[in-house]
Structures are given as C-alpha cells and as structure tokens.
Design brief:
Blueprint (H helix, E strand, L loop, with lengths): L6 E2 L5 E2 L11 H30 L3 H12 L3 H8 L1 E3 L8 E3 L2 E3 L3 H22 L3 H24 L3 E3 L6 E2 L2 E2 L3
Antiparallel strand pairs: 1-2, 3-6, 4-5, 7-8
Length: 175
C-alpha cells in the first residue's frame, strides 16, 4: 500500500503523511469548541471541587483535576501515535511538545476526562458495584468521549488521518 510521500518532522524522523488541506474552522467554531470541550470544566468543576474541600475536607477532587491537567502533557505523543492533527487557528497553544502545538482546550478537557471521570469511577467502586454496572460505566465513559470529540471533528478543529480502524464518520471508536 502506497501512503504517499513521507513528511519530514524536524528532529523526530518521519511521520505518516496527513491530509495537506489546511484545517481552518471559523473563529466562532474554534472558540465554541474550546468552550464546549474545556471551559465548562473550569466553570463548573473547579468551584465544585473547592466546595468539596471546604465542606468535607476532601482534597481528592482537586488533586484529580490537577492530575488530569498534568496528564494532558501526553497529548502530543497520542496525536503522533493516533495520527491526529489540529487546526492552526485554535485558541492557544497551551504548550508545545515534540514540535506539536497543543490547543488551549486540552488541559481542561483532560481535567474532565482523566481527572473527574476517574474520580467518578473511584466513588462508584468504593460504594460497590456489580460487573454489569461497571460495564455500563465503561460504556458511558466511552460515549462521553464521542460526545465531546464529534463537534470538534464536524467543525474541522482537528482530524484523524491515515488508516483508522473502527472509524464511523470522522470519529475513531477504538479510543
């Protein structure tokens, strides 16, 4: 199978070719997706986490939010491995790593997915759940990713390129 010419990637060898058509969501789409995928966490989750701390002396939600934000540092590696590329005109970057600019929406998005969803799963496990309930929780965590990612894909804020298994529409469901 011929994938086309390889694109040099400064300092990191060769990567698979991506679609060379520029991704260019409108300014509204870029800001809307940033708010949709990231800002809600800051506006809703942080006050809730601080209330948990004040009322119950429970540091775990704040620590989970912080750990979620730190987990976002792995996004550039995931983007390379999963063949994801971002539009150049999204708000940010929050940081640059491996030569990739990571949009500002990613750290708060990870605060939700890697932080608060893990916290939710932990609280469910502590209360005691059945295998069936665990399977439903796993299903809803996966569904939440699809709900969060599809608007960005539809607005061309980013795309998955190359051979993607389990692709339905623009979203790759193996994640």
């Amino acid at each position: 199978m011929h994938l086309g010419p390889y694109i040099p990637f400064a300092g990191y060898g060769q990567i698979l070719p991506s679609n060379t058509v520029p991704l260019h969501p409108t300014a509204f789409e870029g800001w809307f997706f940033t708010a949709y995928a990231g800002a809600a966490v800051v506006l809703l989750a942080l006050p809730w986490a601080f209330r948990r701390l004040q009322k119950h002396r429970d540091w775990l939600p704040i620590l989970m939010l912080i750990s979620g934000a730190l987990t976002s540092l792995g996004e550039p590696q995931l983007d390379l491995v999963s063949h994801l590329r971002w539009a150049n005109n999204l708000p940010g970057p929050a940081f640059t790593m491996f030569g990739l600019h990571v949009p500002a929406l990613i750290p708060p998005c990870y605060m939700l997915f890697m932080g608060l969803e893990s916290y939710w799963l932990l609280t469910c496990l502590q209360r005691g759940i059945t295998k069936r309930q665990f399977a439903w929780i796993a299903f809803f965590i996966g569904l939440s990713d699809a709900i969060m990612e599809n608007p960005g894909l539809m607005m061309h804020a980013y795309e998955y390129y190359g051979n993607q298994p389990f692709k339905v529409g623009d979203f790759v469901y193996y994640y």
